[in-house]
Amino acid sequence: MYVTHSGLMATTRKDFPKIKYALSQIPSKDGSPVAFGVTDFILAFNNQDANRKEATKQFLDLFYSDAMYEGWYKGTGLLPVTTSMITAAKASDADNKDFYDSLSYVKFNPVSDPKWDALKNALQGTAGTIQKDTPENVLKAIQAQLDAAS
Amino acid sequence: MSFPVAEGRTKPRRHKEVLAALPWLAPTLVLIAGVVIYPAYLMFWTAFQKYNSYGILQGPAGWSNFFGKGGAFTFPTVPWTSVWTNTVIWVVVVVIMTLALSLLLAQFLSKDFPGRKALRLLVLLPWASSVVLTTTVFRYGLQGDVGIFNRFLVDTGILAMPYGFTKDPTAAFWVAVFVAIYVSLPFTTYTILAGLQSVPNDVLEAAHVDGANAVQRYWQVVFPMLRPAIAAATLINIINVFNSLPILTILNDNGGYHTGHTTTTLIFQFKAQLGPGVASALSIANFLFCLVVVAFYFWIVKPTKEVQ
């Protein structure tokens, strides 16, 4: 039993067609559905240049247009992120039905929040000290790093 | 008779000589200016500018990269006592052990025996391979489930179950000390071997005739003559080991500001998480600390003292 995603299931179906498996929800305390999502993201630098900003906007519009994006996301084996593609995929893609259902309650890392980088570093570095320290001290240490890095 | 005019006549000639030499010196001067002086100046300038963690310049910072809210010395949860003691132990233990083992190895390699040439070439191997390659071999070897060193320790009964060496900052630090000694041995051995070749045989024979045994011959005759070679090797080793980053970083698989950091690895942690400004601030402190260590070495050991 392990936590999986649509890309892994695609590989399983392709390379190990004889395996019998079933997909189910991640268990939660009160039975409500839980899903954690991971996405790639695109970072653009603000060069205070209106022309560059317009060019970036045009590039992103082209990249995520239906004509371009369909071929792109199908090659990755992962779920699409544009609403038009999701609606189309819900109708056509039966293999990943459970994952499309979870899109209504999925949660992602708040990557666009400016404080997220500092929080991620603090969590990765300090969360492990809960082995030897009280939860209050661990949280205080994480908060102190967040305040210092902002 | 005195020649008071002579001095006045040679001065312009010396100036002309310097000017004549300038075209030959120019490439070296350009290289030194470009590769040493300009980056050092840039590092000092960067330490007083504010950057975000992506490296975007955000204006002047005064001293806040050093002592401000998120400064190099005031950032919370950094275990500074561990960092300073680790740095000192790292340099002292690695340099002293390397020197001791190299003296032994050089003495052995200076004797004549069949296969000496092949053995001298083999000793060169850890220096010829990249440090990252050597360290990665150790890191994979210490991996918990399939690493050969861990499996060896378990199968021979030394350990009851595989130990996560790379996950424990202290264990990883001491493995790194071992690897650092291993990769520093060839250079030091060859420097001392070169110094040994210059010890004249007749001095040794005279000592033997005077009744000195092997130990006395070594410590009273050979060792003082090795002083220049030892001085050169130790100084270069101190600087290299102090600035050594890959060994410690590759063997230490922990996140955050753990107790296995030295000042050099801390600089790179700051660069990744807090940006170039804070990292440059700590780099300046690191550079001054290295100068202090080198000055201390010269003061205590006096390696360039004349051989009596």
Descriptive report:
The complex is a heterodimer of chains A (150) and B (308). Chain A is mainly α. In chain A, 51% of the residues lie in helices and 3% in strands. In chain A, helix 6 runs antiparallel to helix 7. The two termini of chain A are 40 Å apart. The relative contact order of chain A is 0.10. Chain B has 14 helices and 2 strands. In chain B, helix 3 runs antiparallel to helix 11 and helix 11 packs antiparallel against helix 14. In chain B, strands 1-2 form a two-stranded antiparallel ribbon. With 308 residues, chain B is mainly alpha-helical. Helices cover 71% and strands 2% of the residues of chain B. The mean pLDDT of chain B is 88. The radius of gyration of chain B is 25 Å and the shape is flat. In chain B, strand 1 (49-51) and strand 2 (57-60) form a beta hairpin. The A-B interface holds A 45, 117-118, 121-122, 124-126, 128, 141, 144-145, 147-150 and B 53-54, 56, 69-70, 74-77, 254-258, 273-274.
According to DSSP, the number of beta strands of chain A is: 2
What percent of residues of chain A adopt helix (DSSP H or I)? Answer: 40-55%
Sheet with the most strands: spatial strand order of chain A: 1-2
Structural class of chain B: mainly alpha
Q: What is the spatial order of strands in the main beta sheet of chain B? A: 1-2
Computed structural class of chain A: mainly alpha
Largest sheet of chain A: 2 strands, parallel
Q: What fraction strand of chain A? A: under 5%
- As a whole number of angstroms, the C-alpha radius of gyration of chain A is 20 Å
Largest sheet of chain B: 2 strands, antiparallel
> What's the β-strand tally of chain B?
2
Q: Which residue ranges of chain A are poorly predicted, with pLDDT under 50 across at least 5 consecutive positions?
A: none
Assembly status? heterodimer
Give the overall shape of chain A: flat
Radius of gyration of chain B over all CA atoms, rounded: 25 Å
N- to C-terminal distance of chain B: 39 Å
